[in-house]
Each structure stands twice: as structure tokens, then as C-alpha cells.
């Protein structure tokens, strides 16, 4: 058996195993009720705060703060 054939068989077996695992996880995985509730709460908070906005690097740098507790606004505080 040549090394090329052994490598090809290794790749084929790995892909088949990966496919079986993906199919199994898609058919058996479900979120718990606590996770679903958490996602709903996060969506509601995003809508209440004007929606989700992903910042680019320039916005991240301009909003970066290293002031410790002073860097947290009271509106960001969790009750």
C-alpha cells in the first residue's frame, strides 16, 4: 500500500466519521427551556436598547475604557 492510498483512505474515513457525527448532533440536540428563555430575554434587551450593533475596530478603540468601575454606566448595570 502506498502512502498516497493510505492518506486518501484516512481522509475518506475522517470525512465519513465527521458526516455521521454531524447528522447525529443535528437529530438529537435541542436547547433547554432555560436557554430558550435566555435567548428571548437577550432579544428583548437588544430591541429595547435600539437593536444590535456590531462595532468595527475604530469604534472599539474610541469606546475602550480602562477606568475600572467608573467605565460602567448605570444603564448597563444588571438588576
Structure description:
With 79 residues, this protein is an all-alpha fold. It has 3 helices and no strands. The termini are far apart. It is elongated and about 70 Å long. The mean pLDDT is 83.
What is the beta-strand fraction? Answer: under 5%
Mean pLDDT: 83
Task: Output the number of helix runs.
Answer: 3
Anisotropy-based shape:
elongated
Span between termini: 66 Å
* Annotation, overall tally of beta strands: 0
Q: Provide the low-confidence segments as ranges.
A: none
Percent helix among the residues? 55-70%
Which series of helices and strands comes N to C? HHH
The major pleated sheet works out as: none
Class inferred from helices and paired strands: mainly alpha
Q: What would you report as the Rg, rounded to the nearest angstrom?
A: 24 Å
Throw out a few tags for this protein.
3 helices, mainly alpha, 79 residues, 62% helix
Summarize the structure.
The chain has 79 residues and is an all-alpha fold. It has three helices and no strands. It has helices spanning 3-28, 33-48, 57-63.
Amino acid at each position: 500500500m502506498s502512502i498516497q492510498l493510505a492518506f486518501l483512505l484516512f481522509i475518506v474515513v475522517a470525512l465519513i466519521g465527521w458526516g455521521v457525527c454531524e447528522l447525529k448532533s443535528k437529530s438529537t440536540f435541542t436547547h433547554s427551556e432555560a436557554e430558550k428563555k435566555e435567548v428571548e430575554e437577550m432579544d428583548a434587551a437588544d430591541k429595547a436598547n435600539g437593536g444590535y450593533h456590531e462595532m468595527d475596530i475604530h469604534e472599539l478603540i474610541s469606546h475602550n475604557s480602562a477606568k475600572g468601575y467608573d467605565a460602567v454606566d448605570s444603564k448597563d448595570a444588571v438588576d
